[in-house]
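step=encode ok
step=design start
structure_in=
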């Protein structure tokens, strides 16, 4: 009942920037997040944002370089990625949570109900 459409992935040189977007449709949700998965590795948390209060959470590996934001009118979440490194190369997934957790950082895949198909980000050195 919730559809997530991702865009913005691509190939970029180290030190460059990309902006990912995730347009959501369907029922209401409490938070949206970004996860990434590199080949032969588990899916890991990148960033999350609550919808009403716009509280943000970041993985230590991207803090200071990535910025998550949302546009309520467009029901879209963005991930601005600056100073990209080769280790940022991964398939990036958008996720939406329809559950509220009072003291959650929304950093676990278990807290999300819906997932996008993923968009590839490749950073060359």
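sequence_out=
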């Amino acid at each position: 009942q919730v559809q997530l459409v991702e865009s913005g992935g691509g190939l970029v040189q180290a030190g460059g920037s990309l902006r990912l977007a995730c347009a959501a449709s369907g029922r209401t949700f409490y938070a949206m997040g970004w996860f990434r998965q590199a080949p032969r590795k588990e899916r890991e948390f990148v960033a999350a944002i609550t919808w009403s209060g716009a509280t943000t959470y970041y993985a230590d590996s991207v803090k200071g370089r990535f910025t998550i934001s949302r546009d309520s009118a467009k029901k879209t979440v963005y991930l601005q990625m600056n100073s990209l490194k080769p280790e940022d190369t991964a398939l990036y997934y958008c996720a939406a949570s329809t559950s509220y957790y009072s003291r959650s950082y929304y950093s676990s895949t278990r807290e999300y109900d819906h997932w996008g198909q993923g968009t590839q980000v490749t950073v060359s050195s």
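step=design ok
step=annotate ok -> The chain has a mean pLDDT of 95.
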